[in-house]
Specification:
- The longest helix is centred in the middle third of the chain and has 14 residues.
- With 127 residues, the protein is α/β, with parallel strands linked by helices.
- The protein has a single domain, classed as 5'-nuclease (Rossmann fold, 3-Layer(aba) Sandwich), CATH 3.40.50.
- The model has no long low-confidence stretch (mean pLDDT 95).
- Strand 4, helix 7 and strand 5 form a beta-alpha-beta unit.
- It is globular, with a radius of gyration of 14 Å.
- Strands 3-2-1-4-5 form a 5-stranded parallel β-sheet.
- The chain has 7 helices and 5 strands.
- It is 53% helix and 13% strand.
Length: 127
Amino acid sequence: MILLDTDVMIDCLRGFEPAKKWLESASEQELGLPGLVVMELLQGCQNLREQNTVEKSLSRFSIYWAEPEQCEFALKRFAAYHLSHQLGLMDALIAATAIGVNAELATFNKKHYGAIKELKIIQPYKR
């Protein structure tokens, strides 16, 4: 299974050709979204029309949420790495969600996620 991070989904929603091709080629894989990624994408909408378009585009994906033990994991990693690696709160929770469902995380945010050794990261296409 592969969970998609916000940056990858933004590329897909904007019609970035390499992202679209990768998404089509990955249709054999189980793809999902952390619930927090969905919330970040909705937060970026400027009006109801944009929000409806985003919600429609995301409807094909399963949504995954962190369980309480993953939230504890996220807290420990956040405390350990927010200063040294600029690991953000949302990134810690997104990483914990991916780890909790045993998924790879498709992202280009290697800098922040790199500190979390348990996380499997893939960069799905070239930018």
